[in-house]
Structure formats: structure tokens, C-alpha cells
Amino acid sequence: MRRENTVCLETPASRLVLAKRGGVWTFAHLGAKGGDPAELAALAAARPYACNHLAAGTAETYPAFGSSRGQNGFSLGDARGALQARHADGDVSVDWETRSCDFSPARGGAPAEVAIVYADRAHPSFTATQHFAAHADCDVFETWVELRHEEEGPVALSRMDSFCLETAGLGDRFHLLSLSGQWASEANVAEDELLRGREVVLGARSGVHDSWENAPFFMLSVGPAPAREESGTVLAGALCWSGVWEMRFRHEWSHELRVSAGAANLSGPYVLEPGRTLALPKFVFSWSERGKGAASRALHAWARRHLMPHGGAPRPVVLNSWEGVKFDLSEKRLVAMMDGARALGAECFVVDDGWFGRGAFARNDAGHGLGDWTHDPEKFPGGLAPLAKEAEKRGLRLGLWFEPEMADVESELLQSHPDWAMQEPGRPRRLQRGGGQVVLDLPNPAVRDAVFRAIDAAVRAVPGLSYVKLDSNAEIANFGSPWLGPERQGNLWFDFTAGLCEILARLRAAHPDVAFQSCASGGGRADFGSLAFADEFWASDNTGAQQRVLVQWGWSQFLPACAMAAHVTASPNRHTRRASSLKYRFDVAFSGRLGIELRPEELSEGEIAYARRRVAEYKRLRPVMQGGDLYRLASPYEGDHAALLFVAPDRRRAVVTVCGLSRKASDGRLAPLKLPGLDPNARYRMREIDLALPGEAQDTHTVFSGKTFSGAALAAAGIPFDLGPGDDSFVLELAAVRS
Ligand code: GLA
Question: 3-state DSSP call for residue 248?
Fold first, then answer.
């Protein structure tokens, strides 16, 4: 809704009110629906603040360094604003005035949108077009900014955030939840109070593994304690970017809150040439007054409906070759794995690393052949087409592994184009994985084109190829782009990621039916920037089932289950060396996109029979896990087990997974599983599925398996259950019965 000086964007449960003051647009209100937008704006403007520009109601939607409205020329609490630019004439200030503000109401599936054009008063060709969009079918707002100018020479951008919310009156206590980690230990949940007068900075600097150090997401609880799963007030946000990024959270002494997020430059400002438009990454946010669970569900729904390719389609059960055979590939060996895949009921067989390179550059280890995307004729004398035929015969789709951003020095690619890799002039190259891996100079359009063409040709060479795993196993460690030249080296970080996005967009357009996986040495690329192109992400190279309980819990805060590849691997696990039962491994993987990553030949007959049953159950129930709403019932951070509930969109079916983590017999009684999200008036029959392998005890974990209760009773009283000591687990199916 647009009035002269107010814009109101609404999602089903929340609203964002912008108000025009002093020539610019300001954040007037972010909250639950209710009240007249103009009145909300008037109340926000009148708030009595002692010491900064919010007193004047000028929490600009895109504050810049040097604005005449900020206190002493600075925007609140951060001297740099969301944007800091040095103009062609050396002026370092930006002072916006509004050139236009256009509102378009929601139409069809398209969200309502407002586009504000700001121009600098002293350099009117320097503009920022800021968009806000609100979805009518999920509680998510999107915002993005485009920068452009026609000055005499380049403008240097030392800060170029996508989003900067300065707000007063939200509250006086805040808690910040973020995800932090490293290789093989991704997505650890950390939550702390954002103390008064302090600033917290989150970010990732690798250029590639953007979701390891921290992942580009947050949940900020408003109030004296962190929000709970189904209660409390939360602002959740995510930067849709797969490169270097930074988010800042500042709690002013006078209780204003400042949240900013954007792509970061690590080696000097971004140089924007006249006449070029710089599209900054999208930022999405959700406001929930019904706890963190509602914020997660909103982001999951948004990702499935408005971001991911094939977001609503069922994901196939995959068998991936990596943990089973590593680089030791041959047609015979892979066909034997395919036989196993078929016996287990898998639907897609993925040939991971090791299928490419030839002669001296054959990919027999991690140091050779990367970048040469043609099959190894020694391993596959007839090419990959015969393998595709074998897959087809077994009713399996086929997938292949690629690493588009990198190459080995020992490759035909880099031997013939040594200047296509990142390198600082006059310095030796730092070599990474396998002793020879380097990152390609993706800012260079010729390199991007060559990478696209090579992968496109490889995909076309395999008839029926329908899955592509995209990996990235090095970081930007040579801080020079030969193509960018001496003046624009600061553009390396942004242009690298933008270059990658261009390759991915071209691949998607050329192969719209292929499913893509985003992987970066495990969960290094678990973000909404990647999921704009990919159907799924690899959650972690650590496939130890116990560790996966924690990793998946972390990702589930923001990323939907249908996108989270979760594979059953061999026991003891090769990372954690911990053993776990096949049942436990399946129960853990049930809450993502189920896959298998082991040599089926090594399973016993009993294990094969059990795994086949589990795969069949998963296929039957996957619409619930992959397309349903997630309710997190019990946190593995607060107790000794994780419990998740998935409810199908029509609420006729639901699935509960409960996975213990090293419980001790003395740990005592467990709180019943209270199930929100069911239809209170429907009656549900409960059934514990796939109890145990043949020959093992068939104990149920709840005496109510097989019984029927109303949704209202299950929400209010919950299901009493028991978990054995160690790593015990179970899965419960609930199906509405006709009354
Ligand atoms: C990375 C991935 C693994 C596997 C290997 C192959 O580590 O995360 O899943 O694909 O590369 O080299």
C-alpha cells in the first residue's frame, strides 16, 4: 500500500512500514500486522531519543557515509553507513535525495514491491535503486540494491552493504543466534546476548567457503531471553551470497539496534566504472512473534517457493560413490555399485571425483586433472555413455561431480592457460588441496566462458545425465586476478562470486532439468546465494551420524530439509571413527534428502533388506519431510537428544524423528513430545516405523504406537516416550484417520 509519504508492505503476518522524511525514506515500523501505517510512522517519528539522528526519525533505508542527516554527518553508531563511496572527483561523502518511489502491488505469484531511487545531491548521476518486496504466501521480505553512476571516472566503494536496518523502540535486550564452524564441523549454533554498547561482527573471508567460519544467516531475539521455538519475537535474516560477506549487529547504549549485511571487500575498495550497474546481493528477512520455529518455516517456504529451482519437486534418493571408492573408479566397480544402488531402491547414482583427466593428468589423486572435464580413457575406454546405459538399464538416473572454480596446476587447462588462475604478480603461487590446486580467475569473462563450455559439453556427452555435484575445495589464497589489472584488484572478491553465479546461471539455463548440488568441501556453500541455482547442498563431509544430528539441527534453522543432502555411510564412520547402527544412521538421514554413500557390496543380506525397507519408507514419506513444515521439538544443545516434527501441508500426515546423543541410563525421564502444527480436530494414528534389523529386538519407543489421538491432545499433553542409552533413535509416522 502506498500513500504520499508512507509505504506499507505486508506478508501474511507481518508488515514493514517505510516513511518519507527530510527527502529520504526511513524505516518506520517492522512488526506484526495491525494499526494504521501512517499512525505507526507518526509514532515512530515522535520517539524521544536523546543522542542521535533517530530522534529526528531519519533511520534511512540506505544510510551512507557523509549524509547531512546523520549526527555529525555520520549514520547511527557506525561512521561508515551501509555505503561508503569515493567519487571520481575525490569527494568521500554521499548525501541522498529521493528521485522516485514506485510501488507495485502483489500480482499473481509476484510479491508487492517498492523501488526507491536515491541520487546523491552533489553527484546526481550516482544513484542507488533500493527494492523491497513482500511475499503474500510466506512471511519473508526481500531487499536488494543496484548502484550506478556516470561520473567522469570510477567511483571507489569501500563499503557496499545490501541491507542496513537502524531501528529504535524494538526493545532493550537482544540475543543473537548465529552458525559457526569449520570443515567437518559446520553449522554449530551459538547464541549470546548482544550487549548494550557493543557490536558483533560475523563474516566469512575465504571467498569460497562462505558458510564455514560463520554462515550468512542470523536470528535476533528481542526481549530479556532468547526466543523459544514456538514463542518469542525474532528477526531472522540471510544474505543471499556465496562469497566474502560481513554482518554487523550493534546495540547502542540508548538501545537502538543496527543490523547491516553485505558483500565485503578484503583487499581494497570496489572500483565501479561509469555506466556499469552493480547489483548487490539480495538480503531476505522474516519477522516472527511466534518464535524461531515460525521464522525458520517462513524461510524454508520462501526458499522452496521463490528461490530454489524445482523447489516443490520430490528429491531422488541418491547413491554417491565418494566414501565408497574415492578415486579408485572403474566402469566395473561403478556398475557393481549401481547393482547395489538398485537393490537398495536408490533412484540416482552419482559418480563423484575421479572420472576425468588423462595421461599424466589423470585424476587418480587430489593433485591432478582438475579443470579437464573429459572422461579418463583408461578408466572409461568407451567414454561415459556405456555407464549411462548401465544406469538406465537399472532404472537409475546418473550424476557427475565437477569443481568449476578451480584447477590443478597439473592439468591440460592450466598448462595451456597459466594466466587463468589467480596469482599476485611476482609472487610464488600458494598451492592447496593435493599440492596443486588453485582458484581460477573467474572475474575474467574468457575463463568463465571456458569453464561453462567445458562443463556444458561434459554434461551433453552423457546421455540422460540428470544430476551434477558442484564442489569447491580451495580458498582464494592467491590475492591477484591477472585479468583485473592493477587498478581494480579490490574487485577480485565480488567479481569472483559474481563470475561463479554467471557460470551457474548459464549451466542452469542450458540444463533446466538437471539437479545441481552445491558443495564446498562439505558444507562450505550452504547459503541462499547457492540455492538460487542449486537444488540442494552438501551439509558436511563429516557423515558421522551423531555429528550430523547437530549439523542438521544447525542448518535447519534457515535451510529447508528438501535441500539438505543427508547420506547413510559406513560404520564406523571414517571421520568420527564412531560406530552406529544402520537404523540410527537411517533415522538421522530421514530428516533431510536421504542418500547413501557406501559400497553396497559390503552390506550383509540382512542389512540390504533393512536398507531397502528404509528407502521405500522414505520414498513413501518424503512429501512430508521434503515439502512439509518443520517443528523442532527438542534441541540436542539443551538435552541429550534431538526431536523433529514434519507436518505435511494438508496436515493429514506427519513424521517425528528422535535421535539420542550418548544418553546415559541415569539420564532420567524424557519430556513428552508435544506436537504443534497438527490439525487439533483431526485424529492421528501413530506408528513407529522400521524398528530394527531382522534378528534384533523389536522394541517400540512409545507404548502409544498403533494408537489414535486427536491433534489437540497431542499438542497439549504430548507423547510419552523412551530412549535407550547410547545412540538410540526412532521414527514415528502419524496419519489422520477418517472419523
Ligand atoms: C569434497 C566433497 C566430498 C567429495 C570430495 C571429492 O571434499 O565435500 O563430498 O566430493 O570433495 O574430492
Answer: strand
